[in-house]
Each structure stands twice: as structure tokens, then as C-alpha cells.
Specification:
Elements (H helix, E strand, L loop, with lengths): L8 H38 L3 E5 L8 E10 L4 E13 L2 E6 L10 E2 L9 E3 L4 E3 L20 E4 L2 E4 L8
Antiparallel strand pairs: 1-9, 2-3, 3-4, 5-6, 6-7, 8-9
């Protein structure tokens, strides 16, 4: 026996509007859920610290070290290599980014003959003090960024995201 499955116009519109409303609600709710959950998922990535150098190797003169790590781009894993300036400020280890805050060029320590005790960006003549603060009157408008760091068992471990100095 075949049953007659006729759907009235009212039922059809009810089903259609319920389906469309459900999709619209999901479109509104899903970004909120992702906003709430994403920081929890990112917390593990933020805790990844990379072993860069032994504290015994550091001096009061900034030295360049390579910070190498893998970064998940979503569709592939990318090998990243950044240059970090490490030095001692008394007993404290300092890790500064080598990226100029003006236009992203690479800064070097002591390469400006007129200012040998400063970081220097040769592209636009940007200068930074030893502590990373930008020299007034030069193109950079903010200090060099600092890497989060930990010292464990005589080794310096750096986070992979340099942060602006406050």
C-alpha cells in the first residue's frame, strides 16, 4: 500500500523558514563559539618555547642568534628562521627582535660608525638604543620588540612572538 505524502503549502513554508533560520542562527553563533574556544586552543602554541642559547655564551654586547621553529599555516607546516639579539643587562637576559619597527628592515648592532653602541637600520637610517628604545628624530616611532623568554638549566628559551615594549 502506498501512502499519500502530500505537504501543504503552510508545512512547506514552515520547513523552509525553519531550515533557513537554522542556517542563519548557526552563522551568528559559530563565530561566537570560535571566539570563546580559540584562545583555549592557542594557549598550547603560546607555551612553546624554543631553546636558543646557553646563558654562559651571552655577554653585555648584543649578539645575533637564530630562532628556528615550525609554524602551522593551516594548509602546510612552514619552517621559520628569525634573527634575535641576545645580551645580558646585569643579571637579566634581554632578547630583542632584529626587525626595525619603521618598515620591517633588519637592524644590526654597532654598524653605524657614528653610533657604534646602538642598533642601526641602514635602509632608512633608523637607530635604537641598546635597550631597544628608538632614538628620537630617526624614522622608527616605537622600540624594538622583545621576545618572551625563560631561563631553564642554564639555557635561554624564547617564545616565537616578539611583543611590543611598553
Amino acid at each position: 500500500m502506498e501512502k499519500n505524502h502530500n505537504v501543504s503549502r503552510r508545512q512547506f513554508l514552515t520547513y523552509t523558514l525553519t531550515g533557513v533560520g537554522g542556517f542563519m542562527a548557526a552563522g551568528v553563533v559559530m563565530p561566537m563559539v570560535r571566539f570563546a574556544v580559540d584562545p583555549l586552543l592557542q594557549a598550547d602554541a603560546a607555551d612553546d618555547m624554543v631553546d636558543v642559547a646557553a646563558v654562559d655564551e651571552l655577554t653585555e654586547v648584543p649578539q645575533a642568534y637564530d630562532l628556528e621553529y615550525e609554524q602551522d599555516q593551516g594548509w602546510h607546516i612552514e619552517q621559520v628562521s628569525e634573527t634575535v639579539w641576545l645580551f645580558l643587562e646585569g643579571d637579566e637576559v634581554v632578547a630583542l627582535s632584529s626587525v626595525c619597527t619603521h618598515l620591517g628592515c633588519t637592524v644590526n648592532w654597532g654598524t653605524d660608525p657614528d653610533n657604534p653602541e646602538q642598533f642601526f637600520c641602514p635602509c632608512h637610517l633608523g637607530r635604537f638604543e641598546r635597550d631597544g628604545n628608538n632614538v628620537p628624530g630617526t624614522p622608527p616611532t616605537e622600540p624594538l620588540h622583545r621576545y618572551p623568554l625563560e631561563v631553564r638549566d642554564g639555557r635561554v628559551f624564547l617564545g616565537t612572538n616578539a611583543q611590543p615594549q611598553i
